[in-house]
Design a protein that fits this description.
With about 170 residues, the protein is α+β, with helices and mostly antiparallel strands. The chain is built from three helices and seven strands, in the order αβββββββαα. A five-stranded antiparallel beta sheet has the order 1-2-3-6-7, with helices on both faces. Strands 4-5 form a two-stranded antiparallel ribbon. Bound molecules: ligand GNR and nickel (II) ion.
Length: about 170
């Protein structure tokens, strides 16, 4: 198992649109384990492959307190959306920022799991929000895209400044 490096906004690689997975290889299963390790260590409730610089349509999620409800969604397709929910969202690729974002409150999603079984699942509340947030990542979209240009710029400048600071600290 290995912990992977998470790309941070405004890294242009977060804007790459991921391509469908054709079959679940052993290499992909290793990536899935590494993504869980990375997400649990962060800690976060979800992680899209895009965030670890792998541009395939794959996400993991676990909303439990004790890491006992792992979800693996490969080639996820949101088939239905209903209702509205506003959540303070955070993102491991936008560390330190939490902002209100409006999403569908209930979704139906179709995907294959790590055994290549096709599954249709209904999700509500935070799980529905998390899946929509992760599918956005696979399309090169970030939660900051829903904020005002001014807010997004402020976040981008601060994160760029933090990164420059980190670069001089190790030097
Ligand atoms: O850990 C995370 N928490 C979170 C909280 C509210 C809405 C979405 C999320 S997803 C985020 C992890 C992450 O960045 N996934 O891409
Ligand atoms: Ni995110």
């Amino acid at each position: 198992m290995a912990k992977l490096k998470i790309l941070e906004f405004p890294d242009p690689r977060l804007r790459i649109k991921a391509t469908p997975v054709e079959f679940v290889s052993d290499e992909l299963r290793t990536l899935i384990s590494d993504m869980f390790e990375t997400m649990y260590a962060a800690p976060g409730i979800g992680l899209a492959a895009t965030q670890v610089d792998v541009h395939k349509r794959l996400l993991v999620a676990d909303l439990s307190d004790d890491n006992t409800e792992p979800h693996v969604l490969i080639n996820p397709e949101i088939l239905e959306k209903d209702g509205v929910i506003v959540t303070d969202e955070g993102c491991l690729s936008v560390p330190g920022y939490y902002e209100a974002v409006e999403r569908a409150e209930r979704i139906k999603v179709r995907f294959i799991d790590r055994d290549e079984t096709e599954i249709e699942m209904e999700a509500v509340g935070l799980l529905a929000v998390c899946i929509q947030h992760e599918v956005d990542h696979l399309d090169g979209k970030l939660f900051v895209d829903y904020l005002s240009e001014a807010k997004r710029q402020r976040i981008r400048r601060k994160l760029e400044k933090d990164r420059r600071q980190q670069a001089t600290e190790v030097a």
